[in-house]
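Reviewers of the previous submission asked for a worked example of the structure-prediction workflow described in the proposal, so we include one complete record here. The input consisted solely of the amino acid sequence. No template or homolog information was supplied to the procedure at any stage.
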Amino acid sequence: MGRRLRYLLLSVVILLLDQATKAWALARLRPVAIIEVIPDFFRLTFATNRGVAFSLFADGPEGTAYLLSAVALLAAVMVSYQQWRTPVGYQRMQWALSLLLAGILGNLIDRIRFGEVIDFLDFHLAERYAWPTFNVADAVICMGAGLLAIELLREERRGRGDVS
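From that input alone, the workflow returned the following structure tokens.
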């Protein structure tokens, strides 16, 4: 149980970091909107997103926030179940699921509290090329999904005998 608890603790710490940074963004960044950190590369920009990644469904009909919250809750339950079923010795898989769970819950909390997700990390090259503004939860979801994809590909190759 101790090793399983470690992965739960990882999710909790990341979730707290996500919520603390969003609270900071609401309190300190919202009034000023933008803080240039590294000119022409990185700034802190207060933004909200009613949709999902890249603002998909942001302009959806009334009730979209409830649907997105329900989907996120279902995803969190599925990830938790998979994490419980996965042996603790599968460390990469446990890391991936811990990151996914923390990120899903972080954005779900925003949707429940505010009806939208708070974003504030803004990377860009000059003004020509910009990545959509995001938050800690979004970043760990991407990391978890990438790690999960790598682990699933490794398992597939192991099943075929390509990797030891």
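The chain is about 60% helix and 15% strand. We consider this example representative of the routine output the project will generate in years two and three.
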